[in-house]
Design a protein that fits this description.
Helix content is 15%, strand content 33%. Strands 6-19-18-17-16 form a five-stranded antiparallel beta sheet, with no helix packed on it. It has a five-stranded antiparallel beta sheet with strand order 7-20-21-22-25, with no helix packed on it.
């Protein structure tokens, strides 16, 4: 049969689409100009025929039937049709009118004002200009430098030689060649420790909300010691790297500068501070919105890059003072405040402390650190030798020995297993008048054990006693949280979460009837390894929340995504799904509870702050999401993490077959040495298996 005769205007066209035969007219197929069909029928693209002479098209016949019906009737029945899939096929066939209508249908499900949980929006900031060298020196040499250290303005500041154990130095003048200084820093692991053997009674009076694990940093020493992006790598200047919050202030770290906002009752969120341009890529940020030393001292904001720490004081009116630039001599992996003290930690065993009263910067060598937690004015350190040490920051620097921080050993693991995660719970005072200053500590080890140690009133003076041991994890424990009602632990095997319900008697943890297994589930997380140095710092999945409140995990499945899954730490059930209102990639996030206003009846509200690739900050109302009515509505839709359908859509954004991604393996700890940007698949399996594990969880009570 001649092609010209078969494809005449009045002739029937026979098509074989994916093995299914269709018959229609040439006029039906070609009424939309410049489509796939007009090119096919005019022989502008190559065509194939089956054994019966029908034109063969290797596409989905089910979706094609919908498109063909649209070409016939100019109407589409969207019942039981996936709009996203239909649009994809319509784009392939070049059916422009259908594509536009489907895009509108998709847009109707999204709103630039967000859903009910969307709470606020902060637009991208202006990028600050780079400081001149003279201006930098002037700002760094502050009045406080002269009054405390006796230096003259403008004088070059060089840190004095440091001893092997510790040192006290003045702030150093920032200079334009600081990235080179970072690259040439001496990264060494000290074998010297200063722990003391006594185990005194602790008086921990203040609750806290801080927990961290450094175990993942030991996967590869080379990746820890040096990353070329710290010196010369390019980073998107408006991509939000990290968000940190304290009271009613938030600090947002971009690649080369930070901004701060505060929340006021009547004015909402107000911009207060933008830092000068920093040449190196910012890796860590810390903020303290309540110094407790008078309003003139303002708020404290700190950043770190490489081994350098830079600190500012900011007043309520936005007046900033550059306190100084300090050097830890090794890469700063964690940066935070304990009271008015700024603390910089490195897992190699170095601690740097800046004291707000004396303006001294002191460096201390201790045993290699693998985890830490804070409780009131105490810093607790889980170490690689199996010991738990503590430093009382309230007594620093008045209580020093040979210019060392007074590091005291509190407890040692019976198996000398490295302490890879630690959590301190301070029980409230009881109505019976018992001393309310007892402590409970849960910690995880490299071998997978989870132990609980307690120091209750009847054991005061004898140090913490081993209370309970769980050996259900088969991989290194990366997180542990002990709260009033639950004990939650996470191991490195695909972020496997175990949750136990805790029994208490008069506020103290009890063995009658003991800890009851509640849930076992996994939190999928594909982590960006390179080139985002600050990815782990800005995308920690939790758990978040005060220890006496409902705690949640925030699950970011793939690095380049516009949505987050919020799940209850107690059972893994889904709380809500947060989706960017403008479709931009969520690059970092932070969960935080802001104080209520001074108005009568006002209560604190919990928020999730999301930072985006376009520099904007979006805010989400977690308090509303946790309310029973909203949670019940979400529970009908899904039981936990992403469903297989949701995961499939997310993985469209990450091609696991190319060189930028690594597929899941038995070991969730791929090497950090491989070149080129990539992600690691740390928890890809068992996405939505949140189930009761009474039959599978074993525990040993000691």
């Amino acid at each position: 049969m001649a092609v010209s005769h078969a494809l005449g205007m009045g002739e029937i066209v026979h098509l074989n689409v994916g093995g299914t035969r269709f018959s229609t007219s040439r006029q039906t197929l070609s009424w939309i100009p410049d489509s796939f069909f007009t090119a096919l029928l005019s022989n502008r693209i190559a065509s194939r025929r089956d054994e019966n002479g029908a034109l063969f098209i290797d596409r989905d016949p089910k979706i094609f039937s919908v498109i063909l019906n649209y070409l016939r009737t100019k109407d589409v029945d969207l019942t039981d049709v996936n709009i996203r899939t239909l649009r994809h096929e319509a784009e392939y066939y070049g059916i422009t009118p259908l594509v536009k209508r489907l895009m509108l249908c998709e847009d109707l499900s999204l709103s630039p004002c967000g859903d009910i949980l969307f709470y606020g929006y902060l637009p991208p900031p202006n990028i600050p200009l780079q400081e001149a060298t003279v201006a930098t020196t002037t700002i760094t040499t502050t009045v406080s430098d002269v009054s405390v250290h006796g230096r003259q303005p403008g004088a070059n500041s060089v840190p004095p030689p440091r001893s092997e154990a510790s040192s006290i130095s003045q702030p150093t003048v920032s200079s334009s060649n600081s990235p080179a200084q970072v690259a040439n820093s001496n990264y060494r692991v000290s074998q010297r420790g200063h722990s003391h053997s006594r185990t005194p009674s602790l008086d921990l009076r203040h609750a806290r909300n801080s927990s961290a694990d450094l175990n993942k940093l030991f996967k590869n020493d080379i990746g820890l010691i040096f990353n070329p992006l710290t010196v010369s790598g390019w980073a998107d200047p408006l991509r939000v790297q990290i968000i940190k919050a304290h009271h009613n202030w938030i600090a947002i770290a971009y690649a080369h500068f930070i901004t701060c906002y505060r929340l006021k009752d009547s004015c909402g969120w107000q911009h207060v501070f933008t830092s000068p341009h920093v040449e190196s890529v910012i890796e860590r940020v810390a903020i303290n919105a309540k110094m407790g030393m008078g309003a003139h001292e303002g708020k404290m904001v700190a950043i770190s890059y490489g081994s350098q720490v830079r600190l500012w004081s900011v007043t309520e009116d936005g007046i900033k003072t550059n306190i100084g630039t300090f050097n830890l001599n090794v890469r700063v992996e964690f940066l935070f405040f304990i009271g008015s003290q700024l603390v910089a930690l490195s897992p190699t065993g170095k601690i740097g402390v800046w004291h707000a009263m004396t303006h001294h910067w002191q460096i201390q060598d201790v045993v290699s650190i693998s985890s830490f937690d804070t409780a009131g004015s105490f810093l607790l350190l889980g170490c690689n030798n199996g010991s738990i040490n503590y430093i009382d920051m309230q007594k620093f620097p008045l209580r020093m020995k040979d210019n060392d921080l007074l590091v005291t050993q509190l407890y040692r693991d019976p198996s000398n297993d490295p302490i890879t995660a630690i959590s301190v719970y301070l029980t409230p005072k009881t109505t019976q008048g018992l001393c309310g200053n007892w402590i409970e500590i849960a910690y995880g080890t490299k071998s997978g054990s989870v132990r609980v140690i307690v120091q209750h009133p009847e054991t005061v003076g004898h140090g913490p006693q081993l209370f309970q041991t769980f050996t259900v994890h088969q991989s290194s424990v990366t997180k542990v949280t002990l709260s009033e009602k639950y004990l939650v632990s996470v191991c490195s095997e695909y972020n496997h979460v175990r949750t136990w319900a805790v029994t208490r008697f008069r506020g103290m943890i009890s063995t009658q009837p003991g800890s009851t297994p509640e849930a076992s589930f996994k939190v999928v997380s594909l982590d960006a390894v390179e080139p985002c140095i600050s990815y782990n710092a800005g995308n920690d999945f939790g758990p978040f929340g005060e220890q006496d409140d409902e705690q949640v995990f925030v699950q970011k499945v793939v690095p380049e995504t516009d949505q987050l899954f919020v799940r209850r730490a107690s059972n893994g059930k889904r709380v809500c799904v947060i989706q960017s209102i403008d479709g931009s990639v969520i690059t970092s996030f932070c969960a935080h509870e802001c104080e209520g206003s001074s108005r009568m009846g006002s209560r604190p509200r919990r928020f999730i702050f999301t930072g985006h690739s376009n520099g904007a900050i979006q805010m989400w109302d977690l308090t509303t999401a946790l309310e029973p009515n909203y949670s019940a509505l979400v529970a009908k839709e899904s039981s936990g993490g992403p469903t297989p359908e949701e995961l499939w859509k997310l993985l469209d954004q990450c091609d696991l077959s190319n060189s930028h991604c690594s597929t899941p393996s038995i070991s969730p700890s791929p090497s950090l040495i491989a070149s080129g940007p990539r992600i690691k698949a740390s928890n890809l399996l068992f996405l939505n298996q949140s189930q009761n594990s009474n039959s599978s969880v074993g525990s040993n009570q000691l």
